[in-house]
Amino acid sequence: MKSLNMSSQSIIPNTVNPDLQKERDSASFNSEEFATWWAGGADELKFKRGIKEYMYKDFDKDDFIHLHYKSHQEISEFGIQNSIKVAKKLRQLQAERNPGGVDYWPTLFEAPELWGVHLAGNPFGVMYVMLVRALKSQCTPEQWEEFGKRVERFEVTATYAQTELGHGTYLRGLETRADYDRETDEFVLNSPKISSYKWWPGGLGHASNYCLIMAQLYIDNQLKGPHMFYVQVREEDTHEPRPGVHIGEIGKKMGFIGVNNGFLGLKDVRIARTRMLMRHAQVHSDGTYVKSPADVLTYFAMVSTRCIIARNCALALAMASTIATRYAAVRRQSPINPKLPEPQIIDHVTQQLKLFPEIATSVAYRLAYDYLWNLFNVTSSGIDQGKYEHLPELHSLSCALKVLSSMDVNAGIERVRLACGGHGYLNSTNLGNLYVNLTAACTYEGENTVLLLQIGRYLMKSWRAALKGAPLAPTVSYLADVQRSPEFGEWTGSWENLVKAMQFTAAKKTELAFNSLSKRIANGESEEEAANHTGIELTQAAEIHGRAFVFHSFVNEISGPKSKTRSSALNRVLEQLLELYLVNAILKNLSDILRFINLTGTDLSKLQTRLETALTKLRPDAVAIVDGFDFSDRQLNSTIGSFDGNAYERLFDAALKSPMNQKSVPKSFHEHLGPFMKSNM
Prior knowledge:
Elements: H1 18-25, H2 31-39, H3 42-56, H4 63-67, H5 72-97, H6 105-108, H7 125-138, H8 141-152, E1 158-161, E2 177-181, E3 186-190, E4 198-199, E5 210-219, E6 222-232, E7 245-249, E8 262-266, E9 269-272, E10 282-283, E11 289-290, H9 300-330, H10 349-384, H11 391-418, H12 431-439, H13 448-468, H14 478-484, H15 495-522, H16 527-533, H17 535-559, H18 568-588, H19 590-596, H20 601-618, H21 622-628, H22 633-636, H23 647-656, H24 667-678
Parallel strand pairs: 1-5, 2-5
Antiparallel strand pairs: 2-3, 3-9, 4-8, 5-6, 7-8, 10-11
Helix pairs in contact: 2-3, 2-21, 7-8, 7-9, 9-10, 9-11, 9-21, 10-11, 10-17, 10-18, 10-20, 11-12, 11-13, 11-17, 13-15, 13-17, 15-16, 15-17, 15-18, 15-19, 17-18, 18-20
């Protein structure tokens, strides 16, 4: 038998694994049509493919393998160097394809299409995902011209600093102070104690020289609440910290290994009054304070970021599902019939239950995000016209999708990683990297439990409004329907009925929480104390409310008018994904549903049969579906998830490239192991 050597010659064949090719050949629909639908149209798909082809062609595909053998400092340096390379190339792309046109490269800098080139994470990601958006929505036109455009053009580097060592989601508890000094027309910023230090902002450590800081505004020692201040923290020419600025990075993390998250402390740092963002709230030179027309406008950048998180979670789960599904098609193990060869593991129904619901879940959250982003744009347009009526619904819905998508995707990526057996544990598969990055989404931009409590408060207000017959926002209008129509909770099992079942359950959970809250207040507890003691019921109602919305948006997209624009073959596959998602989610939430809806044993048996049938119907099309997600191999960065399916060869190739395999005998043998074995100890 000829052994493999460590030569530079590739051991990866130039052919597609026959098992994977068989899956594609036997699919019942055209994955290209799925890709067009998933991208949002043929033009959008062409644009995204063109971006990927251009951006990936000059990057070393082995950088990902080598990255995990670098030191923490080397990874941080690589992250900055690599992201600058990406920025330069995007500008080159802009110059070649859209000279003189609207700059689209800033919106692409942190786009999912380029995740595969930001191998260590993007230390300037917060700058473009959050900071530029915050500046655009919070700056006056003059401020945007003065310093906002410089950030967008990457003439300076900046980040958004809100979370502190001692406070995160509870913004009213932030301790960083900005005191107005009338005599100098300046704000004086301070971090009063160690818990006041800004902590976690991406890129803050050593990659940023400016910072948008959320601090408590004080005028004549009177608190006006959190406001945003644009502060220079490092010199532009030398990058040395400015006077009064204590800045650095917080250390190694589970994921986002090259993002350079940092800390920031301030001691009597002075900035001009005009460096407070004043589009909505203002401080005049005489100290007069003009309050924002809506408090939530101060946090509007967080709302947009939560929308992006929901999108990113959906796409990350789609990536993980693509990797695991392709691997399941080429991995053969554990005979079903002992007289036949080992089958593809995708033929095991238990494997299908691990994989296919996650494919469906990624589609569900992507469609829910589409609704959310449309609502965000409508709300943004309204704000420009001085209309704020959509803000409460947008805030609640963005919280719900941020919570549910991060929670479900975190669990889903781990589920499909486990579905890949031991190989899923290797860094080279990229599943672990996806997992540790996505698990962070459960806490950043609002810790999930805190956000659920905020949704719960919104549901309490909505339930009270429904009792009074007052108008409700569209996404909570079912609360009034349930109050008016007791038959709302009857069971038939149709898709529309499954949506109603989840809405009915959410309404009843909301009613229970409302009654508990009201009873506690009636018994003498303050509203805050009562809300704390009702917290479990509030979070449960909030979660089911979010799931009801995802149900509704999925059914509306797949069975609504848009279905007429798709082929019958694609519609059939999308309907099967919808069926699987709805039935699987109903079965997972039976403990709540059965409390309010009378399902018989026969009904439950039918649901189990529907689940198994949906898995069977999706089995021939699973590979073609994940192909339709249209991730390039460079985006996936996975030894077991490549388009050609040559998983074993790629695993071995990655192992051979380990620095430890570049010498046949490690230094540790000569210095430690060898002498120890000869010492007769």
